[in-house]
Prior knowledge:
Order of helices and strands: HEHEHEHHEHEHHEHEH
Strand order of the largest sheet: 2-1-4-5
Structural class: alpha/beta
Strand content: 5-15%
Helix content: 40-55%
Shape: globular
CATH class: Alpha Beta
Number of helices: 10
Amino acid sequence: MTDIEKLKDLLEKKEQLVAMVAPSFPLMYGYPDIITKLKALGFKYVVEVSAGAKKTNEAVAKLLRENPNSRFITSPCASFVRYIRAKHPEFIKYLAFQADSPMVATAKMVRETYPNYKSVFIGPCIVKKLEASEDYPELNIVVLTYKELNQILGEKSLSDIPTNSQDTFDISEDTTRIYPFDGGLTESSGIRSILKDDEIRIVSGYKNCEAALKEFKENTKIRFIDILFCDGGCISGPGITSALSVSDRKKKVIDYANSFT
């Protein structure tokens, strides 16, 4: 059964559902239009995964503070984690698995806040499906890309329903809405107050991964790599449909984040 079929089945059975929307959503949907659509589809609650990203940040910052002589590579990117497992298992020991990815942190938050509700992650990444099913099966997360959500919205004739301007996220976090582009974790977590600039590397794009790992191996002064597998970060994930350039995608996310200040 595909994830689209799983969600359709859950909706038909009128299961209690919480939508967890990744912070790259402004590239595909307006706010609060996405909330209106999801609640019309059958979700009881809609939460921002930026809330889980704050938990990720807190865990990463704690690791760095409590282990001043250790070195870490971020692990929220499911594609990069699998790249390391397959190509460079010698670097697994550096992956900061003590910090949950934003998706996982949000799912745990949902489980605590809304007991007996099922989490459905909606985002730009197809590899999140593997993270959910292989790494955290106990959380029972259904994962859909934005493209897959659009397919369901189209089938249900909900693509063009009027927006309810009163709709808001049931759980949200404004400090981590820049998370989906390269350096989002570093810039939203306060890590620059813990580490010096030359101890940090911000990397995105699979073509840059090899060079980044080589530098990390050779330059032990580097204590932290903030790395995402897609060019520019999650804003270029395969589950996104957009004609915008990477810089324009980044601007759109920033504009959304700034609209709350």
